[in-house]
Amino acid sequence: MRLLIQRVKRASVIVNNNIQDKREINQGMCVFIGVTHGDNESNADWLADKITVLRIFEDSDGKINLSLKDINGEVLLVSQFSLYASCVKGRRPGFSDAADPIEAERLYNYFVERVKSKGLSKVSCGEFGAEMEVEIINDGPLTFIIDK
Predict the structure, then answer these.
(1) How many structural domains are present in the chain?
(2) Distance CA 83, CA 145 (A)
(3) CA-to-CA distance for 118 and 129, rounded, in angstroms?
(4) Where in the sequence is the domain holding 59, given as residue range(s)?
(5) Predicted model pTM
(6) Residue 98 and residue 81 in contact, taking contact as beta carbons nearer than 8 Å
(7) What is the full DSSP assignment across 30-76?
(8) By three-state DSSP, how is residue 107 classified?
(9) Distance CA 48, CA 71 (A)
(10) How far is CA 59 from CA 51, 55, 68, 109, in A?
(11) H or E segment to which residue 114 belongs
(12) Tens-of-pLDDT digits for all 148 residues of the chain?
């Protein structure tokens, strides 16, 4: 699994152009999730644990020393199969490293449930396989990639 994490002041996702179903968060993380072949629940468990304690927020001295839990931060989770795109050959990305959609959706949903079980103040998410508009106000900007 691959996560692209952005520290945000706020973020939102609109699924399938349904503005009435806007899902949003305030200060925290926007996390894009990609699933590849061979990923399993153990990967998802490790990553869910990691993002809740990853210290990417500033303390009162301005040092990056606090986690989501420390700041009572919120998280927006969005599936993104293109995290496993390859742009090495040709001019069109190849997606053969992305997991089969059925398995990817199962692991994405498992990951969402694991993150929700961590006691964060708010967890919002997009919808696997849907057309989504994601709006992000970066904080920093700080962006991290974690593979497991």
Answers:
(1) 1
(2) 10
(3) 25
(4) 2-147
(5) 0.95
(6) yes
(7) EEEEE-BTT--HHHHHHHHHHHHH---EE-TTS-EEE-HHHHT-EEE
(8) helix
(9) 17
(10) 17, 10, 12, 32
(11) helix 101-116
(12) 999 999 999 999 999 999 988 999 999 999 999 999 999 999 999 999 999 999 999 999 999 999 999 999 999 999 999 999 999 999 999 999 999 999 999 999 999 999 999 999 999 999 999 999 999 999 999 999 999 9
CA–CA gap between residue 69 and residue 17 (Å, rounded): 32
**CATH number of the domain to which 56 belongs:** 3.50.80.10
9: left (phi over 0), alpha (psi -120 to 50) or beta: alpha
Q: Which helix (H) or strand (E) holds 110?
A: helix 101-116
Helix/strand/coil for 125: strand
Cβ partners under 8 Å of residue 138, min gap 6: 6, 7, 8, 9
Q: Could you give the C-alpha distances from 76 to 6, 63, 64, 94, in angstroms and in order?
A: 10, 24, 20, 26
Tell me 116's DSSP state: H
Distance CA 32, CA 93 (A): 18
